[in-house]
Specification:
Blueprint (H helix, E strand, L loop, with lengths): L3 H25 L4 H29 L5 H26 L4 E5 L5 E4 L1 H7 L11 H4 L5 H6 L6 E6 L2 E13 L3 E8 L1 H34 L9 H29 L6 E3 L1 H16 L4 E6 L4 E4 L1 H17 L6 E9 L2 E8 L6 H4 L11 H6 L6 H11 L3 E7 L3 E9 L3 E2 L8
Parallel strand pairs: 7-9
Antiparallel strand pairs: 1-2, 1-5, 3-4, 4-5, 6-8, 8-13, 9-10, 10-12, 11-12
Helix pairs in contact: 1-2, 2-3, 7-8, 8-13, 9-10, 10-13
The structure holds adenosine-5'-diphosphate.
Length: 421
C-alpha cells in the first residue's frame, strides 16, 4: 500500500491533471472541447506513467505489510494500469489530430490522427521541433507569428487533398496543445451548396428575363380589366429578377479570393450615393452628407459602390417619412469609417448578430413592402471582408440605427496622388 505522503502525491497529480484538462477544455471551447477532454485524459496518461513504475518499488520497500494488504495493492495496481491503457488508447484514437508540445515547442506526444493529418512519424518525431518539422507547410507562417488565432481551412501537411482547421492552445507551464480537425467533408458540402445556388440562379435568369420582357410588352390600356393584375405581375417579376441578380452577386463574391485593387475616388462616390438616396427618398427624408476623411479607397469600385449605397438604401427604406439620414466618411484611429445613421425603426438587439445572414429579416412584411431581397447586408459583409474591412451595427428600436464600415490604413489613398495616406 502507498505510504500517506505517496498517496497524497498521487491524488494531487490526478487532481492537477484533471484541473489542467478542464482549463484547457475551457480555453478551447466550442467544437474542440470534445477533443480537449480526451487530451486531458492523455495528460493523465503521461503524468501517471512514472507513478505506475514507481508503485512496485514503493510496495516492496515497505516493511511489514500483510499478505492481504499486498493482494489489495496488486489488484488496485492492475486496475490503474488497465485504466491507463484504456485512456492511452482513447486519446490515441481521437479523430482530431492532437500534439502536446513542451515549453520549447518540441513534440512531447501525438496521436494517430496527427500522423495522418500532420504527417508526424513515430518514433522519429518525438522530441522534434514542431516549427522545423512543419517548415515547408502552410502552417509555418502561422506558427511563426505566434498562432494566436485559429487557422482555418488549410491543406493538411500529411494529406494535401484534405483540409484542416488548426488551433494552438497554451496550458500549464508554457506548454502548448496543437489541435487539428479534418474539415474536408464540410468544405465539400460548402462547395456543393455554392455550386447549387449559383446554378439555380443562373438557370432562373433566362426564363425570368423572357417573362419580364413579355409582361412589359402588354399595354394595360389594351386590357383595362387586367391592369391591376398586370401591375402586380410586373412588380413581382422585377423582384424575382433582383433576387436572382443578388444571389449571383453573392456567388461571385464568395468564390472570389482577391478583389480588384483600383483607386476608388470617394468624393464623387459619396455624391453619387447621396443622389441615389435622394431619388429613392423622393423628399420624404432629410439627407445629410459629412465627408471629412480626405481619403480614397483601394479596392473594387463596383463592389464598394454596391455595398455603401446598399446601407443608404436600407436607411431610406426603414426610416418613416420625416426622418433624417446622415452619411459620413471620416478618419478614425484605425483608418477611415463610412457610416450611415438613420432615425428609423431601429433593430432589437437580439436580431443584430444574424442580420448579415442571407434572407434574414427583422420583419419579412416590412422588408418585402419596401422592395428588399433580404440579401443586401449579406452582400455588404462579403464586400467588406474582401477589403479586410469591418461592419459594425448599432441600433435602438424606435430611435434609429448606425451601420459603420471601417477600413484599415492600408486601404486608404491620398486623393489625387498615388501614395498611401
Ligand atoms: P432587405 O432586403 O430585407 O432590406 P438586408 O439584408 O438589406 O435585406 O437587411 C436585412 C434586414 O435588416 C432587413 O430586412 C431589416 O429588417 C433590417 N435592416 C437593415 N437595415 C436597417 C435599417 N437601417 N433600419 C432598420 N432595420 C434595418
Amino acid at each position: 500500500m502507498f505510504e500517506p505522503t505517496r498517496r497524497l502525491t498521487l491524488i494531487a497529480v490526478l487532481a492537477a491533471a484533471l484541473a489542467l484538462g478542464g482549463v484547457v477544455g475551457w480555453l478551447a471551447g466550442g467544437h474542440v472541447a470534445t477533443g480537449v477532454a480526451v487530451v486531458a485524459l492523455a495528460e493523465i496518461v503521461l503524468l501517471l506513467s512514472p507513478i505506475r513504475h514507481e508503485t512496485q518499488p514503493i510496495m516492496t520497500s515497505l516493511p511489514g505489510i500483510s499478505p492481504l494488504q499486498h493482494d489489495r495493492f496488486m489488484t488496485r495496481s492492475r486496475r490503474i494500469a488497465s485504466s491507463l491503457r484504456d485512456l492511452r488508447s482513447a486519446a490515441g484514437s481521437l479523430p482530431d489530430a492532437v500534439v502536446l508540445l513542451d515549453g520549447q515547442q518540441h513534440v512531447r506526444w501525438f496521436n494517430h490522427a496527427a500522423e495522418d493529418l500532420l504527417g508526424l512519424r513515430r518514433p522519429h518525431d518525438r522530441g522534434a521541433d514542431l516549427h522545423e518539422r512543419l517548415s515547408t507547410t502552410e502552417l509555418a507562417g502561422w506558427l511563426e507569428s505566434g498562432a494566436h488565432e485559429p487557422l482555418n481551412d488549410v491543406a493538411a501537411p500529411g494529406h494535401p487533398t484534405r483540409h484542416i482547421n488548426v488551433t494552438l492552445l497554451p496550458f500549464g507551464n508554457s506548454q502548448r496543445l496543437l489541435l487539428a480537425r479534418d474539415i474536408s467533408h464540410l468544405t465539400r458540402l460548402e462547395q456543393i451548396r455554392r455550386d447549387f445556388v449559383a446554378n439555380v440562379s443562373h438557370e432562373l435568369r433566362t426564363p425570368l428575363t423572357v417573362i419580364h420582357g413579355y409582361l412589359e410588352l402588354i399595354d394595360p390600356e389594351d386590357v383595362p380589366e387586367l391592369a391591376p393584375v398586370l401591375g402586380e405581375m410586373r412588380a413581382q417579376s422585377k423582384r424575382m429578377g433582383q433576387i436572382v441578380e443578388d444571389l449571383l452577386t453573392l456567388s461571385r463574391l464568395e468564390t472570389q479570393e482577391h478583389i480588384a485593387e483600383e483607386r476608388v475616388p470617394m468624393t464623387p462616390l459619396m455624391a453619387t450615393i447621396r443622389k441615389e438616396a435622394e431619388a429613392l427618398s423622393q423628399g420624404r427624408h432629410r439627407i445629410t452628407l459629412e465627408s471629412t476623411a480626405e481619403a480614397d479607397l483601394l479596392g473594387s469600385a463596383k463592389d464598394l459602390h454596391s455595398a455603401l449605397s446598399n446601407l443608404v438604401s436600407n436607411a431610406v427604406r426603414y426610416t418613416p417619412t420625416g426622418g433624417s439620414i446622415t452619411i459620413r466618411w471620416r478618419r478614425t484611429p484605425e483608418g477611415a469609417t463610412y457610416s450611415v445613421t438613420d432615425t428609423g425603426f431601429g433593430i432589437p438587439a437580439s436580431h443584430l448578430a444574424r442580420l448579415t445572414e442571407r434572407f434574414y429579416r427583422v420583419s419579412s412584411s416590412r422588408s418585402r413592402d419596401s422592395g428588399g431581397t433580404g440579401l443586401g447586408l449579406s452582400i455588404v459583409k462579403h464586400v467588406l471582408n474582401l477589403h479586410q474591412a469591418r461592419l459594425d451595427i448599432q441600433s435602438e428600436p424606435g430611435q434609429g440605427s448606425t451601420f459603420s464600415c471601417t477600413f484599415g490604413k492600408e486601404r486608404l489613398l491620398k486623393p489625387g496622388g498615388n501614395e498611401e495616406s
